[in-house]
Amino acid sequence: MRAEPTDALLVVDVQVDFLPGGALAVPEGDAIVGPINALAKRFRHAVLTQDWHPAGHASFASAHPGRAPFETVRMAYGEQVLWPDHCVQGTRGAALAAGLDVPGADLILRKGANPGVDSYSAFVEADGTPTGLAGYLRERGVVRVALCGLATDYCVAWSALDARAAGFEAVVVADATRAIDRDGSLTRAWERMIAAGVGRITLS
Ligand code: VGL
Ligand code: ZN
């Protein structure tokens, strides 16, 4: 893709816990680091996100006695997948991937810090609380958001949908993402993104 000055690259959750060997490893998550580094050089604006949970976060299966990772529970804000403990604030697993090299990034946005509420999206927490990212991007003159990172079917998809809901154009750089893909989650995510007008592009 050719990046315009009004494009921003959103690099979602490229963190140690989402890479092979991590607490919530995304298959081949490490394969996108090099492509993202190359992609980022084309953008005037880049924002990195970090999943950033307090210990005992409500999205962790360990916080729900008798429940196992990947089961779902009903929360006040809707259905919640229960995850292994991951991206706990200040731990090595929450750090950005060592090889990630986006020195020009303007902002590192941390999300999921409310102990009782998850936030797949970089724009809006699961209970509807805005993170401020839409206002930030708008004030910087951004019109289109290009998304990459982890995981395609959760944080990348939710962020892309909320980018659209906030009035931005949105494209997902498909080969600079990887998915968790359980129980058809990747297919469902793409159906929702396409229906919402999210574009699918590739680097190659
Ligand atoms: C993510 C599950 C839980 C993601 C974050 O970054 O896609 N998925 N927390
Ligand atoms: Zn999380």
SSE topology sketch:
Blueprint: E1 7-12, H1 33-40, E2 45-51, E3 72-75, E4 78-81, E5 107-111, H2 133-139, E6 144-150, H3 152-165, E7 169-178, H4 185-195, E8 199-201
Parallel strand pairs: 1-2, 1-6, 2-5, 6-7, 7-8
Antiparallel strand pairs: 3-4
Helix pairs in contact: 3-4
Pyrazine-2-carboxylic acid (VGL) binds near residues 18 and 151.
Textual characterization of the structure:
The protein is of the alpha/beta class and 204 residues long. It has a single domain, classed as Isochorismatase-like (Rossmann fold, 3-Layer(aba) Sandwich), CATH 3.40.50.850. 20% of the residues lie in helices and 23% in strands. The chain contains 4 helices and 8 strands; from the N terminus they run E-H-E-E-E-E-H-E-H-E-H-E. The chain has helices at residues 33-40, 133-139, 152-165, 185-195; strands spanning 7-12, 45-51, 72-75, 78-81, 107-111, 144-150, 169-178, 199-201. The strands form 2 sheets. The chain has a 6-stranded parallel β-sheet with strand order 5-2-1-6-7-8, with helices on both faces. A two-stranded antiparallel ribbon has the order 3-4. Helix 3 (152-165) runs parallel beside helix 4. The longest helix is centred in the last third of the chain and has 14 residues, at 152-165. The radius of gyration is 16 Å and the shape is globular. The model has no long low-confidence stretch (mean pLDDT 97). Pyrazine-2-carboxylic acid is lined by residues 13, 18, 51, 83, 120, 150-151, 154-155.
